[in-house]
Design brief:
Low-confidence stretches: 132-138
Number of domains: 2
Mean pLDDT: 79
Distance between the termini: 100 Å
Largest sheet: 2 strands, antiparallel
Order of helices and strands: HHEEEEHEE
Radius of gyration: 40 Å
Number of helices: 3
């Protein structure tokens, strides 16, 4: 039973007792008290309705926020194996920018393109990569030592 229903029941009891609300001081008091209780009951019902509406709004906002977070943070099973430079399975090479000295990670696409751009100073420079040569097997003159 809601507060308004209880107040309506109380009002019905007071009317059933045939209390003289015009001449009796007690009757006037009871009538005023019942009127105040009716207003309080309506206010409580309004607050409960507003509370329910706010709860539904909060739930909708929470769902929307979860959608935004999933897009922003790209949380998926496929992304667990990737870091900021791509998949761990890709071949990456580390080099140093000749201009600012920052560490740059160079991928296969950059190697094929023959150039890379430094993310720190935005300098674009060419890459000279010889795929067939192994630098460890050559001395400083570019000759292979004999065994």
């Amino acid at each position: 039973m809601t507060v308004s229903e209880k107040v309506a029941y109380l009002k019905g009891l007071a009317e059933g007792l045939n209390i003289d609300t015009d001449k009796s001081k007690e009757g006037k008091l009871i009538t005023v008290i019942i009127g105040i209780l009716e207003e309080i009951g309506m206010s409580i019902e309004d607050l409960e309705e507003n509370n329910q509406a706010l709860g539904e709004t909060i739930d909708a906002l929470s769902d929307d926020l979860a959608d935004v977070e999933s897009v922003v943070y790209e949380e998926s099973d496929d992304d667990e194996d990737e870091d900021e430079y791509g998949s761990y399975d890709d071949d990456w090479y580390q080099t140093e920018c000749p201009n600012c000295g920052a560490t740059i990670f160079v991928g296969q696409e950059d190697l094929k393109a023959g150039s890379v751009k430094c993310p720190s100073c935005d300098t674009l420079y060419g890459l000279d990569v010889d795929e067939g040569d192994d630098e460890d097997d050559e001395d400083e003159n570019g000759e292979t030592p004999e065994e």
